[in-house]
């Protein structure tokens, strides 16, 4: 008896997109690519998980509303990692494997009802660490691709690493920032202090030095504190700032190229995202 194949023949899987799959988005528009930059374990993938969790719970961007995604399965897997487990506690997302370069997609509708595609990168921090010391390193190809093609960048500063490794961690961040600015042109950067619920334990001189140098590096610069642990409800670090990261970049760099697509507004009573999740 021949075994039936259960593999779908549909071109859409809902998983994160590889480079060769970006045509699933670019066929209709020129997307904005956000480069999520930082060393390993700096909180990049957890930030993506928190962003989706907040959107799922009704969080809104300032000038955009959710209009769909081609990577819902990938987002959902990230979301589930932040759910409280039966045994208690939260299991944060696994680090992104070093060979991966993948993208998560958001379709956002602006106030003029025009559809805009956003891609957020998710690659291993090891590639950025190699790139930060040698931009031509053969093992830093993923980081180079992101740097060459992104429209804006989120640079992660790991407060926990600054507490543990102090000046060594600071120098690693400055090396990465130096590489980021060498051909930055007018692309905006927002510096994200991750795990900032511990920021008060970072040596004040390290904080001051980093702030001063980073503000000189980038002509369009902003910084923000985020955390995944809430002490209040709502907690600004968690519930507001995680969304404000992307809000800032969208406000600075979003320039539609070509013809945007006007979608039918047949969902006025309920956000498409919430409808998909049956909330």
How is the secondary structure organized here?
Elements: H1 23-26, E1 32-37, H2 44-56, E2 64-68, H3 72-81, E3 101-110, E4 114-123, H4 125-133, H5 141-149, E5 152-158, H6 159-165, H7 167-181, E6 189-194, H8 204-217, E7 221-225, H9 236-253, E8 261-262, H10 272-276
Parallel strand pairs: 1-4, 1-5, 5-6, 6-7
Antiparallel strand pairs: 2-3, 3-4, 4-8
Task: Report on this structure.
Strands 1, 2, 3, 4, 5, 6, 7 and 8 form an eight-stranded mixed beta sheet that branches. The protein has helices at 23-26, 44-56, 72-81, 125-133, 141-149, 159-165, 167-181, 204-217, 236-253, 272-276, and strands at residues 32-37, 64-68, 101-110, 114-123, 152-158, 189-194, 221-225, 261-262. Helix content is 37%, strand content 18%. With 279 residues, it is of the alpha/beta class. Mean pLDDT is 84; it is low at 263-279.
- Total count of helical runs of at least 4 residues: 10
The helix/strand class is alpha/beta
Which H/E pattern describes the elements? HEHEHEEHHEHHEHEHEH
**Biggest sheet descriptor:** 8 strands, mixed
Shape: globular
Helix proportion range = 25-40%
Task: Kindly state the number of beta strands.
Answer: 8
**Separation, N- and C-terminal Cα atoms:** 43 Å
**Could you tell me the mean pLDDT?**
84
Radius of gyration, in Å, reads 19 Å
- The stretches of 5 or more residues where confidence is low (pLDDT under 50) are 263-279
